[in-house]
Write a structure and sequence with these properties.
Elements: H1 32-35, E1 79-80, E2 83-96, E3 116-130, E4 133-139, H2 144-147, H3 162-166, E5 169-178, E6 184-192, H4 212-215, E7 220-231, E8 234-241, E9 255-265, E10 268-277, E11 287-301, E12 309-324, E13 334-346, E14 351-361, E15 394-407, E16 410-421, E17 426-427, E18 453-454, E19 456-467
Antiparallel strand pairs: 1-2, 2-3, 2-19, 3-4, 4-5, 5-6, 6-7, 7-8, 8-9, 9-10, 10-11, 11-12, 12-13, 13-14, 14-15, 15-16, 16-19, 17-18
């Protein structure tokens, strides 16, 4: 059996779960199990074919394409020998009913501009597998190349402008596959995060805008990981990374994490993600602890085809964490949140509807996305929205998503989101940019001006997403 060379996605749930690729697809021991039906694994493969593997593919006993973060075409027109190519194009239109006059949407890591057509992501790359050596590359042009690096403050420590060095890369890593147990991958580079549930790539998800526990947790890690497939239903994956969504280290110690995923049947999966790190710039005494745990179930499937109702599935994710030491403690500086979704597919999976939402509380705001007030970044901060110990933040959201998928390579998505916060946070009618544009240093105060922040946002989204 040739190794599955299916492109990837950041699924904090299914992405890193599987082999070579991350977030939804990969090469040999990859998320192919989640992305498409595969034939029963063979016990062995011809030794003279360097593109084939000598053991069964883990999780290949079932079809996990229904899971969030795992959607992928069942075939690739870009496959050649040891390489399976991948192309992604995500174009979207967002309309905020707050009508910000500077067209800037805040509080999201997926949605950025109001009343404009923008390209969220342009990505091309793919997966390589030859004689047990693996590699994956995926670029990120478009809005993601600016918006994702601005949420990483680590380039502010030292030289070499790491955010510029990596801003056009979403995934880039190599690895080696060891024929032991159910398969072991040793890999190093830039990976999609293992924390959270939704994929970094919106095509792969049930919704465009995920709830807070996914949108406010990491989308990428720089470091290394070892994927240990104990058998075809269990994977254990330790990580050693620079820090929490960071190109560099915040202090001297690295971040350490582990993921465990168990799928006893093709209709049920649970995953646990754990993380420990020191992620406050200049404060190495402050430790971060985080747990991210999800359960997903496909509770209905019509295998005969032709029925109006194809399948139904639901997901539940719970996050908890805190910071302790360096002037804070877990009693006051913590993060608790959840998100829950239900999805229905119709007419042989050509149409789908998803509804759900979630909530968080995060005193200290250490995981709350900083609004881009006067060009503020995670490194600059801003006095207009502080992130000090004791600063309260509670948020909740709900949404309804409708998808039309005439071909498995394209999704037309329409979505309504209602998002709310306990403090003024979302861009209001007067926006978050001073007249004439950003003034002074990013995030700094401007005499005679203040941002217009409000406590809620209603938003519509229309998107066309293509993936080969």
């Amino acid at each position: 059996m040739a190794p599955a060379l299916v492109p990837c996605s950041r699924s904090s749930f299914f992405a890193p779960l599987v082999g070579v690729a991350m977030c939804g697809a990969a090469v040999a021991w990859s998320a192919v199990s989640f992305a498409q039906p595969v034939p029963p694994p063979e016990e062995s493969a011809p030794a003279d074919n360097p593109y084939q593997q000598a053991e069964p593919i883990p999780f290949a006993f079932g079809d996990f394409s229904w899971a969030p973060g795992s959607k992928a075409p069942s075939e690739s027109p870009l496959k050649w020998g040891p390489f399976t190519g991948e192309i992604r194009l995500d174009t979207s239109y967002h309309f905020s009913f707050n009508h910000p006059k500077d067209n800037t949407i805040s509080g999201s890591s997926e949605v950025f501009r109001h009343n404009e057509v923008q390209v969220t992501q342009i990505g091309f790359g793919g997966d390589f597998f030859y004689k047990n050596v693996q590699a994956r590359l995926m670029t990120q042009f478009g809005m993601y190349s600016t918006t994702t690096p601005r949420n990483d403050p680590s380039p502010g420590r030292g030289a070499w402008t790491l955010d510029n060095a990596y801003r056009y890369i979403s995934e880039a890593y190599g690895g080696y596959h060891i024929n032991a147990l159910g398969g072991i991958n040793v890999q190093a580079g830039i990976f999609m995060s293992y924390v959270g549930l939704w994929s970094y790539y919106n095509f792969d998800n049930w919704t465009y805008q995920p709830s807070y526990v996914s949108s406010n947790t990491p989308w990428f890690f720089n470091g290394m990981r070892v994927q240990i497939f104990v058998n075809d239903k269990l994977k254990i994956e330790p990580w050693l990374v620079n820090g929490w969504q960071s190109y560099g280290k915040f202090n001297t110690a690295p971040g350490v994490g582990v993921q465990a995923r168990w799928s006893p049947t093709e209709s049920f999966s649970i995953i646990g993600n754990q993380y420990v790190g020191t992620d406050t710039l200049g404060n190495e005494d402050r430790k971060r602890l985080h747990t991210d745990d999800s359960v997903m179930v496909r509770y209905f499937q019509n295998k005969g085809g032709g029925a109006a109702f194809s399948k139904g599935a639901a997901s539940l994710t719970f996050d908890a964490g805190c910071e302790t030491g360096g002037g804070v403690d877990c009693g006051s500086q913590y993060f608790i949140g959840f998100m829950a979704y239900n999805r229905f597919w119709f007419f042989d999976d050509k149409f789908a509807f998803t509804f759900g939402g979630g909530a968080i509380t995060n005193p200290g705001r250490y995981l709350v996305l900083l609004p881009p007030i006067n060009g503020a970044t995670a490194f600059s901060g801003t006095p207009y929205f502080t992130q000090n110990p004791g600063d309260k933040f509670v948020g909740w959201d709900t949404q309804l998503t409708a998808d039309w998928m005439p071909r498995e390579f394209v999704t037309f998505r329409f979505e309504f989101n209602h998002r709310a916060a306990s403090v003024p946070y979302w861009s209001g009618p007067d926006g978050v940019t001073p007249p004439g544009g950003v003034q002074g240093a990013p995030g700094s105060q401007v005499a005679g001006w203040a941002p217009d922040l409000v406590k809620f946002e209603n938003r519509m989204t229309a998107a066309m997403m293509v993936r080969y």
